[in-house]
Amino acid sequence: MKIARLTTPFLLAALCFLAAPRPAEAHQPYFEDEDWSADRAYRVQDPTVSTALYATLESRTDVDYVTFTGRSGQRILLGVTIPQIAGQENFAPTIALIGPELPTAPLPKRIAAPAGSGALVLAPDPGPATEFFEPFSGTRYWERQEARVTLPVDGEYRVAVWADDRSIGRYTLVVGDRETPGGDIAFPFKLRAYWTPVPAPPETIPSEPTATAHHCGGR
After folding, report:
1. What tens digit of pLDDT does each residue of 126-171 get?
2. Strand partners, 68
């Protein structure tokens, strides 16, 4: 009976999540339950499927990584939105697509890139961020950068996420735009915990200069 009492609310929430009508910006949500380091990157199964990755830069040295297998000619959507949590008004991470035959672009030394790979850096859009309301979760976000990138060859690709000014905060990395049902069935529970400010880290590290590269912004 104890198990039933614990699991019934979870199952009801999961069923509501799966049955809820999906808006135009529907996506498959997943959360960074453990740090997505270079050695433990999150793997996106299909980069064309609309996937929202809820993650956190929780220290001034944190860099998150996402990987996927791409095909030549695939046009992949990549973007970043910031949840409207107090203190995150100016939080604007940089992202880079790293992989074979991409432009030669210098990256900060702390970014792990396979030997011989290139990189396309997607910097935050300048100026005030556009705001939007996501009715599926009832939450509000600031839109940062978004771009559609055509993959040059078949191969393994990774997306790195970091803050040039070494700030901390929560963000959502969007990969793909083809709507397909799915995602973490524990979404309602995890979103509530996610929607809180990130505790300030104890360390103080000088800001890192912005990488000069093939920056791409805008939608």
Report:
1. 888 899 888 767 889 999 999 999 999 999 999 999 999 999 999 9
2. 157
Question: Which CATH entry fits the domain spanning 29-194: 1.20.140.10, 3.40.720.10, 3.20.20.300, 2.60.120.380?
Answer: 2.60.120.380
Q: Are 53 and 161 in contact (CB under 8 A)?
A: no
- Residue 181: pLDDT band (50, 70, 90) is confident
Distance CA 159, CA 141 (A): 21
Within the chain, residue ranges assigned H as helices are: 2-19, 187-194
pTM of the entire structure?
Answer: 0.80
Q: Which amino acid is present at 107?
A: L
Residue 109 makes CB contacts below 8 A (sequence gap 6+) with none
Q: How far apart are CA 134 and CA 143, in angstroms?
A: 12
CA dihedral sign of residues 199, 200, 205, 211: positive
Assigned token pair, 140: 């509000």
